[in-house]
Write a structure and sequence with these properties.
This protein has 232 residues and is α+β, with helices and mostly antiparallel strands. The protein has seven helices and nine strands. 52% of the residues lie in helices and 16% in strands. Helix 2 crosses helix 3 (32-50).
């Protein structure tokens, strides 16, 4: 029963008045459970009455004055500004400190990747503007490595008639470094001269076109037999 402590101490709500006190007393005469609860409250009351009161600390007054002084110092505009600054520092510390290590690691990784890419692409790119035919380390054109030592009987005569480039040929090179076909750019060939040219080209050794370090077909090499030029 919630009103028993007030009934025991005489501190019932004023709204109940004397009639409320009398009704609780009548209820206690007929309810053993409530009487037992009232007896428990009486024992607690007797125990508290004989217990020694704790003495306040000796520096209680000093603590109270220090607390009042602190509250007064923090109550003005400067105090509120200082508290806002402290909260902002705590928030920034909790947000940015966990991100500091991943962000630093990301910057370091980005610099390493940039250095690696520059090492791959940098040597193949001149400082001035590169033309469309400038080779890079990623794509390298085919070139002649060893020309077959077959004689071409009519080459001297063609040189006298044709000048510096009597016979200009474009050879298509496969991934295995062998000429797969060719095209005569300038010069006149008869059957005998064409057979000799077949022997020279198909028994010569070429370096195939390289794409990302792997040989690929489709490379082209231009031969003039007095000058060799590579075209990607």
């Amino acid at each position: 029963m919630r009103l028993l402590p007030g009934y025991l101490d005489g501190a019932l709500p004023e709204s109940l008045g004397a009639e409320g006190h009398a009704s609780i007393g009548a209820h206690l005469e007929t309810c053993p459970s409530c009487r037992h609860e009232l007896e428990r409250y009486r024992r607690i009351q007797r125990m508290m009455s004989v217990a020694a009161r704790p003495a306040p600390p000796a520096d209680l007054g000093v603590r109270i004055r220090a607390a009042i002084s602190t509250v007064r110092a923090l109550g003005g505009f400067a105090g509120r500004l200082g508290r806002a600054k402290d909260r902002l520092e705590i928030v920034l510390e909790n947000i940015f400190e966990p991100l500091a290590l991943p962000a630093t690691g990301g910057i370091v990784v980005a610099l390493l990747v940039f250095a690696l890419v520059y090492q791959v692409l940098g040597p193949g790119m001149p400082v001035s503007a590169a033309t469309a035919d400038s080779p890079t380390n990623l794509l390298q054109p085919a070139r002649l490595e060893a020309l077959a030592g077959f004689q071409m009987s009519q080459l001297e005569e063609m040189t006298l008639k044709g000048g510096q480039h009597p016979l200009l040929v474009e050879a298509m090179v496969g991934a295995d470094g062998q000429a797969v076909s060719y095209r005569v750019i300038s010069g006149q060939l008869d059957v005998s001269m064409q057979r000799e040219l077949d022997q020279v080209l198909f028994f010569s050794r070429f370096r195939p076109q390289m794409s990302f370090g792997r040989p690929t077909s489709g490379g082209r090499v231009i031969l003039s037999f007095s000058q060799i030029r590579v075209r990607g």
